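Dear colleague,

Thank you for sharing your sequence with our group. We've completed the structure prediction you requested, and as agreed, I am returning the results in plain text so they can be pasted directly into your records. Please verify that the sequence below matches your submission; if there's any discrepancy, let me know and we will rerun it promptly.
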Amino acid sequence: MPDGLGDHGDPGDLDDESDRRHLALEKKRERFVWYYLAYFLFGIHIVAFVMIYAVTHAK
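Please find the predicted structure tokens below.
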């Protein structure tokens, strides 16, 4: 075909491949969400410890 898509055979194969790519992308995005959550919670704890240190060592 002139548009570069071509004939890939069974349309069910395209759906399976599309589903696999979609699931892989969803898994990757979910992993990044967990990373962001972990960094956020870690950062909150660091700020809390600094604040506790500042309050306990205030003159």
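Summary note from our side: Residues 28 and 49 are 32 Å apart (CA to CA).

Kind regards,
the structure core
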